Amino acid sequence: MKFTMTVSPDFSPDYIAGWYIFNTWLQKQTNESIHLELYNSFEKQREDIKAGKIDLIYANPYDASMLIRDKGFVAIAAPDNKSDEAMICVNNESDYHCVEDLKEKCNIATADDPEVSTIGMIMLEPADLNAENITVLEQKNYVMVAKHLINGSADAGFFLKEAYDDMSKFIKSQVRPIVTSQISVIKHSFLVGPSFFENSGINESDFKELLTTMHENMKGLSTLESMGFSLWNEQSQEDAEFMIDLMDTFVS
Amino acid sequence: MSKVTINYYDKTSEDREVLDEEVPFPEGKLIVSRTDVEGNITHCNQAFIEMSGFTENELIGRPHYILRHPDMPAAAFGDLWNTINTKTKWSGYVKNLRKDGKFYWVYAVVVANVREGKLVGFASVRRKPSRTKINECIDLYKTMLAEEKS
To answer: Which pLDDT belongs to residue B73?
Structure first.
């Protein structure tokens, strides 16, 4: 049987090759045929998840809720020291120095990233800003968000911290963060669907062992590094459930 | 500084020092805790420890009302418990009392932790509140407290 693995579309483009290397490594370790399907859009990926086309996924916390609670996916592991944090940034020349400086009817540029948008909106709350009294300018990616800040068409923009950190010095010299989340417990995780365990020769415990020890040999370690990770930490189902509970508090 | 007797819902009470000094909510952080179904703290994050002024050992196993400020009306917490016991999400603005007597305002969201259909506890996430909303609550809670005392 051929299985399909996918990655949350918010991964850094720098690591596309790394995910293909990981897929090759995983096929060798499991002796299973796994196709890597990458998506540009969260919406299209969700359609395929709902249609039962995905067996393994590196999921963002936003989608983990649906995958675990509705689709019976199991949490396997999360990369070490890689929590998902969001930033609100402004043009470096602007007079905005804290969230409370932003006022009603301001323009907020966002990328198509539901998790970052959710955390970003929470960080706007102290300024009495919400979806009803701001204008959201949704962009294809974070470079476009930065562009709107630089040309002055947006007052502020939401960024995944990792995406901001990966931007060029030129962009970062013109775009300044005014607040950064420090949530630390919200993170992407690797999930496996029930069809994989039913139809492959590997069980949950062995899969966890496989990922959490892969940094112990040179091939595994170099594969991890190609994805920007140092190692996988085991994630229990309760760890994932608790993270989902926390995400639930973000949604009104 | 003044000593105030705080009466809790379980009929216990405690004399606590109360200072009229606010500690600002840390930018970008979330205060996270979990309790069992009775409301005893089972987990708290570093932001909770820092803002409450208690040590982790002092918090784990204690009722969450250890943070209750005397300016908070009992009805607010009654509403919280009535809501979350039906496994429904509760949210509201809360003035918390620190160990050193100072206070901090939060916007709190509490959800039930349900595992395999069974209620096993609650998770509470507190985030930075709007000053406008705090000012509204200061007036509202004063009125509610006055009604409770009359």
So the answer is: 94
Please check whether residue B113 touches A, CB under 8 A: yes
Chain CA centroid to CA A243, Å = 14
Of A126, A127, A246, the CB nearest to B125: A246
At B1, the pLDDT band (50, 70, 90 cuts) reads: low
Q: Is B99 on the interface with A (CB under 8 A)?
A: no
Give the pLDDT mean for A106-128.
Answer: 94
Fold of A86-180: D-Maltodextrin-Binding Protein; domain 2 (3.40.190)
The top-level CATH class assigned to A2-82+185-250 is alpha beta
The residue with tokens 């009805």 is B75
Residue A1's pLDDT is what? 86
Residue type, A67: L
Does B3 lie at the interface with A, CB-CB under 8 angstroms?
Answer: no
What ipTM was estimated for this complex?
0.88
Structure tokens at B126: 């507190």
Backbone angles phi, psi at A103, to 5 degrees: -120, 170
Percent of chain B topping pLDDT 90? 84
- B45–A246 CB contact, under 8 Å: no
Q: Judge: A181–B28 Cβ closer than 8 Å, yes or no.
A: yes
Q: Do B127 and A246 touch (CB under 8 A)?
A: no
Fold of B2-149: Beta-Lactamase (3.30.450)
Q: Where are the domains of chain B?
A: 2-149
Distance CA B73, CA B147 (A): 9
